[in-house]
Amino acid sequence: MELRRYDEADRESVAVLDVETPVTSFADVELHAGSFSWQETALADPIVKRHDLAHYLTEGPAGWDHALVAIRNDRICAFSACEFSAWNRRLTILHMYVSRPARGQGIGRALLDAMLSVSSPDDAQHVWLETQVNNVPAIRAYEQMGFRIVGLDQTLYADHPDADTALYMSRRVAD
C-alpha cells in the first residue's frame, strides 16, 4: 500500500469510492461520573449509510491543511483530510473514508499515523474527530487507535433524512 498527498487529479477516483456502511446497530452512549461509555444496541430496521464524497470534496482543499489517499493495486482505496487549529493545538480529522473492500486491513490506522506525522507533537496536542452513533464499526476502530468519546451533538444532523447523533472522539497525539 502507498500513501501520498491528495491531488485535484484524484477527485474523480475519491468521489466514486465505495464507502457505503451497512448500519445494523447503534452506540447507546451514556455519561457516568464524567466519562462516556457505550453499548451496542441492534436496530429494528437496518439501513445503509451513504456518503456523497463528490459533495464533501467541494469544501476542500481550501479547508484542509493536509489530505492523503491510500493506493492499493494501483487504485485509490481510501481518503483522509485534516486541519490544524493553533489556538487549541488540535488536529481535526475532517474526513476518513476507506472503501468497503479495503476495510479491516489497517489502512485507516496508516492514514491516521500519516496525518499525525504531518503535525509534530509540539504543534498538535490532541487529535479530534467526529463520527455518528450509528457507525459502530468506526467507533470500534477509533477506540482501537486510542480514541475515547468526549461528546455528543444531537443537532448536527437534525435536518438530514436519517437524523443521527454526532459522536466526538479525541486522543492525545503522543498516545
Automatic annotation (TrEMBL):
Keyword terms of this UniProt record: Acyltransferase, Transferase
CDD domains assigned: NAT_SF
Taxonomy, superkingdom: Bacteria
Coiled coil: none
Protein name per Swiss-Prot or TrEMBL: Acetyltransferase (GNAT) family protein
Gene Ontology terms, MF aspect: acyltransferase activity, transferring groups other than amino-acyl groups
PROSITE patterns linked: GNAT
Keyword Transferase recorded: yes
Residue ranges annotated for the N-acetyltransferase domain, each copy included: 1-174
Annotated InterPro entries: Acyl_CoA_acyltransferase, GNAT_dom, YpeA/RimI_acetyltransf
